Amino acid sequence: MLCKHETALNPVPPHAQGCEECLKSGTPWVHLRYCLYCGHIGCCDSSPGRHATKHFRTTGDPVAASFEPGEQWAWCYAEQEMVDVPDQFIPYLRS
Ligand SMILES: [Zn+2]
Ligand SMILES: [Zn+2]
Ligand SMILES: [Zn+2]
Question: What is the CA radius of gyration of the chain?
Answer without folding.
Answer: 12
